[in-house]
Amino acid sequence: MSDPLCNVDHMDDDGAAPGGERLTSAAGSVPAGALAVAVLESWRGVLGEVRTISDAERVDLIRALEELKSAACAAQAQLSVELDASQRAEQARAGVPLSRRGAGIGAQVALARRESPHRGGRLLGLAKALVVEMPHTYRALQQGLLSEWRATLLVRESACLSVEDRTAFDAEMAGDPAQLEGLGDRQLVARAKRVAYRLDAASVVRRARKAESERCVSLRPAPDTMSYLTGLLPVTQGVAVLAALTKAADSARARGDERSRGQVMADTLVERVTGQETADAVPVEVQLVMTERTLLAGDDEPAHIPGYGTVPGGWARRLVARRLGTPELAGLGRHTRVWLRRLFTSPTTGQLVRMDSRRRTVPPGLARFIAARDQTCRTPWCDAPVRHVDHVVPWSEGGKTGADGLEGYCEACNYAKQAPGWRTRAGPPGDESGHVVETTSPTGHRYRSWAPALPGHPPPDERESAHTDRDSAAERYLLDLHRVA
Ligand SMILES: [Zn+2]
């Protein structure tokens, strides 16, 4: 599945074109910021030039460019901290209470750096730690002696220290950058841990407690329509879970169970977590987004499962057949509650068919529809799953509760765009390129996001598909459903 498309340009408050009026201030001088951007852009052109040079010069250039990358990261950190201070002051002037100031600033850094908002927040935190509390580490980064990643490692290892201890840590670790020369990342972290422990042994305990507070479970796709369920657990609990599954596998095998140890462990995990009798009988709601050609005409166009991703067309057809209780899996239907939502995609735009509502609140069917259309949070570069379906333009400002007027957001992005100065608007309905949302950040930068193309886009040439199993019960059933719809 392709990434959501997005681009950025800048519009001054008066609507002037990017790089237009802005370059000349009222006093007729060139503002330093605009000049810096122009200079940096000219470097990109120079860097792209092919030169005839010796290998020694090539190595020198590789080193110099590496140091330039670090220096650029230091400059980004400094600018992010200044942006943060300035935007917070702006929010204070707009009457935002102290507890809510700072919202959306990490998101602005993220959009500028083409990163997810989550990572933007982390980068802003890193910048503040470096610029405000760790001057030696910051200087080493600025001088190109430390990469952004290695500076991140030092900030991470000092995260549990008090401000005073962190100052001492900074001086000891980076006061003499020559000491960092030649250290691998692991050696750097080992040295940082030793220094941090010596400064504050209690921080080790706090750190363990903090790590425990970050326990979680996540799901991500694996090849061949499988998935990885990952639990980040305190070590004793992780060991206990594995021991329990191993014991279950051993006793099943002792009773003559023919499944492999791994299979029994996986099935036992599903059964115990869901409370179901067998792993297969999990009540499941599968939203399958596929074209009619794939569903009924044996086409190879892949299908899409929201929250998982792309699945092969043939696999999707088999899933439909199985869930409808065809003979090969007779009896399964009694235990399995499956709702197959027929979300057909338009043959011309690849967009899902439209659903609308007059209500302010988003009805569940429409919310599912938006989540299926958008697949992930609509903020550019944000990969997070859709948690909120919200109006593009707020309901109070005339936003509509329809497919065009709604978009899917992760929780963090939905709160971020509610900070003052953010504006969103939907593109024209029926646009050939699909559902477009344009977001304007408090600094006037505009970012566009297109709903990703779903199965069936672009449409293949009209053709009679080689049809293999049109007469299966499942397909006759679905064909009837479609005729009624
Ligand atoms: Zn998001």
Estimate the mean pLDDT confidence. Answer: 77
Radius of gyration, in Å, reads 28 Å
Instruction: List the total number of helices.
Output: 17
- Give the tally of β-strands: 12
**Biggest sheet, strands in spatial order?**
1-12-11-10
The set of bound ligands, ions and cofactors reads: zinc ion
If you had to describe this structure to a student in words, what would you say it looks like?
By secondary structure, this protein is α+β, with helices and mostly antiparallel strands. Among the domains are: 53-211, no CATH class; 235-280, no CATH class; 284-349 and 467-484, no CATH class. It contains 17 helices and twelve strands. The strands form five sheets. A four-stranded antiparallel sheet has the order 1-12-11-10, with no helix packed on it. β2 (216-222) and β3 (226-232) form a beta hairpin. α3 crosses α4. Bound molecules: zinc ion (ZN). Residues 117, 377, 379, 382, 384, 409-410, 412-413 line the site of zinc ion (ZN).
Quickly describe the structure:
The chain has helices at residues 32-47, 55-93, 105-113, 117-133, 135-142, 148-157, 163-174, 185-199, 202-213, 235-254, 261-274, 292-296, 313-323, 332-335, 364-374, 411-416, 473-484; strands spanning 6-10, 216-222, 226-232, 284-289, 303-305, 309-311, 338-343, 388-391, 406-409, 423-426, 436-440, 445-450.
